Amino acid sequence: MYSFDLDTYGKCAMVNITKQVREAVQKSGVAEGSVIVCCPHTTAGITINENSDPDVVTDVLDGLEQIVPKLPYRHDEGNSDAHIKCSLVGISVVLPVEDGEPVLGRWQGIYFCEFDGPRNRRFTVAVNGVR
Amino acid sequence: MYSFDLDTYGKCAMVNITKQVREAVQKSGVAEGSVIVCCPHTTAGITINENSDPDVVTDVLDGLEQIVPKLPYRHDEGNSDAHIKCSLVGISVVLPVEDGEPVLGRWQGIYFCEFDGPRNRRFTVAVNGVR
Amino acid sequence: MYSFDLDTYGKCAMVNITKQVREAVQKSGVAEGSVIVCCPHTTAGITINENSDPDVVTDVLDGLEQIVPKLPYRHDEGNSDAHIKCSLVGISVVLPVEDGEPVLGRWQGIYFCEFDGPRNRRFTVAVNGVR
Which of B34, B49, B104 sits opposite A86 (nearest CB)? Predict the structure, then answer.
């Protein structure tokens, strides 16, 4: 299992972590199997979306911001919107590993999603399978 | 594979099942690998969110209730809102297993999400890996 | 790993791919383990929902359409709504495999979700475990 630290740069952000995931899969030596990318937080998430036009992740963050309603939430830390986004997006993704690489489409990138930053955060890459 | 029954206590509810998941992982004897927690329903889900302040899950449920629109749905059982929440939240989570324990952050709990209760429900924990 | 092509029939659609997933699991020879169903796209997804009344998937698609706001998005391909749905629903599902079959509830079907069609699309089924 490999752990990575990152610093997020705003209240909400999507940070491309595809490179770190690829490197962890290669380092593991697993040729065929699966890779789990997950985060240990409850106001962040992991998702896969377009890796090309940076406007896409801005639009995804703007969309999520509008989707989550502004309610008089009970949780006194004032970040219930981030907890809701966490359960909408999810804290992990799982991909097959083939020929020692995570199976990703040409336009897919793996993103760490910050919903309550900026903060120092962490994510984990676990690779299982046969060498 | 381990199966668990539970009775949900309202139309919508989030029941902390972290203890059952931990016990299943320990019982499996798997030291390194992965654990899938899933439910066999289409109006429920599995998610990970904060395990500390119970207001968080109330806020998540309230947020989801507002997010799903009140439309003249076609499905004649009248629970299309619950089916939509099911696809938003997802029916499973996957976590790494390390040193015989599911890899969870300090504030993370695993929740069974009821969206069309109260009902008798079921969830499954499957552990794969090496002993 | 098994790959499948499909042609989607509208802007938005949910195509039941349970049969293909079952066949891939059987073909793999894996008796106990896990199956990942994923797509290599960023304007589509994979979800599990009711396999019986076809009105359910229509309602899920209608609900998602209302959930995603109509904003002046930046991405110039005009399909940011589909990218947002992609991150809400997710591009993969993972299920346990037991006795050579994916573990599904009686009413659960696995769906390829098209959010920006009609198009020729692809999905992948990867099965890991012991024979």
Answer: B49
- For the stretch A4-16, pLDDT in tens is 999 999 999 999 9
Whether residue A73 and residue B67 make contact (CB cut-off 8 A), yes or no, is: no
* ipTM passes above 0.90: yes
At A125, is the secondary structure helix, strand, or coil?
Answer: strand
Whole-angstrom Cα distance, residue A34 to residue B85? 27
Other CB atoms within 10 A of residue C70 CB: 10
Helix H or strand E segment including C29: none
Q: Choose among C40, C80, C88: nearest Cβ to A56.
A: C80
Tokens of residue C37, six digits: 């169903």
Contact A103 C75 (CB under 8 A): no
Upper half-sphere CA count for residue A79 (Cβ side, 13 Å): 18
Contact C41 A108 (CB under 8 A): yes
- CA-closest candidate to residue A65, choices A91, A45, A85: A85
Cβ neighbors of C115 (< 8 A, separation 6 or more) are: C11, C12, C43, C44, C45, C64, C79, C81, C82, C85, C86
The pair of three-digit structure tokens given for residue B102, joined into one six-digit string:
């599911």
Whether the CB of A92 is below 8 Å from some CB of chain B: the reply is: yes
- Count CA atoms closer than 13 A to B94's CA, side-chain side: 27
Q: Mean of the pLDDT values across residues C98-104?
A: 98
- For chain A, give the percent of residues with pLDDT over 70: 100
Q: Tens digits of per-residue pLDDT, A14-45?
A: 999 999 999 999 999 999 999 999 999 999 99
